[in-house]
Fold:
Amino acid sequence: MLHSTTEWQSLDSRHFMHPFTNTKDLARRGTRVITRAEGVYLLDSEGNQIIDGMAGLWCVNVGYGREELAKAAYEQLQQLPYYNSFFQCTHPPAIELSEKLAEISPPQFNHVFFVNSGSEANDTVLRMVRNYWKLLGQPQKRVLISRINGYHGSTVAGASLGGQKFIHEIDDLPIPDIVHIEQPYWYQNGGEHSPSQYGILAAQELEKKINELGIERVAAFIGEPIQGAGGVIVPPETYWPEIQRICDKYGILLIADEVICGFGRTGHWFGSEYFNIKPDLMPIAKGLSSGYLPIGGVMVSDRIADVIIGKGKEFAHGFTYSGHPAACVVASRNLEIIEREGLLEKVQNDTGPYLRQLWERFNEHPLVGEVRIVGLLGAIELVDDKSSRRFFKERGKVGERCRDLCIQNGLVMRAVQDTMILSPPLVATRGHLDEIYEKASKTLNQLAEELGRC
Ligand code: PXG
Structure:
């Protein structure tokens, strides 16, 4: 049924409880009703066209309006809309996608466990890690070390692995045996250290924590190659090699959460490849299907599969829709599009470097303390004082204003406190990136004028 925008908004505020939202505040401010999307553009119910600098929520890698993905889902839904993969059953869409994922992922990965979201992937990771050590006769190895300001989802284990205080506060997470160390956020925490010195120091927090807890208790370390929801925190280049060294030295499992970094965002299939690390497990979701249907998974390395599968015990875990046929078909076709259109190469050699050139111009802007960029993943750190790296007193207010101005100017950029985030669809052309840059630039100038910082 067609409604006017105000009718949609009124129905929305009466019945729809939104995720990560202050519902009362939302009802007062009103929602933007998105009704269509094509390529890299969104259309709202008022007919405004907005360029999507966030690929939905970091997921629509191949862009909107792909008829071939819609058709693939339609055909699969007619042929076999659903069947489970429990109890000695399987189906071709899940088998084909498993094979493809084994082919494109680093060589240590030959198995995948399907789930429906990044959060379920991380709950699966937690159970798999503990099961692995238990099967090896070390059930006391249960602690997962994660990072402050990391994001790993909203289910109980996912939110516990995440390191955001405001998320933990609502119901007193984390659950036991999950501990957090400092994040590699040089701009905020690096003080007088150079980024590369700080990268080592931040990584060595892991070694300190292992020693404090006792290696006999520590099971794994988990981190996003680049923290997404935390503010596109690109670690100094020294960070991941040091983390890898420590994981290897102590024999603990390394988990790279690839939910945002996977499927081309950094110009590689996986962010771990960009940083040249060798994880034992990789949770995946988002770009796996470009968000056309919900699907996620855990890539399982031979080290883990040899134990969990090799010991011949049931892994008593799974979801009704693990490996849903239509979602698998859409994901397979989505990976085909990424390959056929050379999106990894395009991001690596063309649009990624081009966006870097554009984005680095913001370094000259009076409000910008730092620009971070890898592939098509970028951040602009808005600060009160550039020379002393001082943030605004009330963190988040300027970012929120910047986000609202962006939307008025026809661009979606997300604000994480006062960090403006960019993660456009991987199909964005140089022309689209110019448009994003011009709109962002106009917005920053308006903001500087409002704050008297021109
Ligand atoms: N891991 C990472 C690294 C993520 O970014 C999840 C796990 C959880 O995935 P699901 O599919 O359960 O949402 C995510 C999700 C934001 C935002 O505001 C980011 C996410 C989800 C919702 C909002 O940046 N990332």
In short: The chain has a mean pLDDT of 97. The domain at 68-340 is CATH 3.40.640.10 (Aspartate Aminotransferase; domain 2).
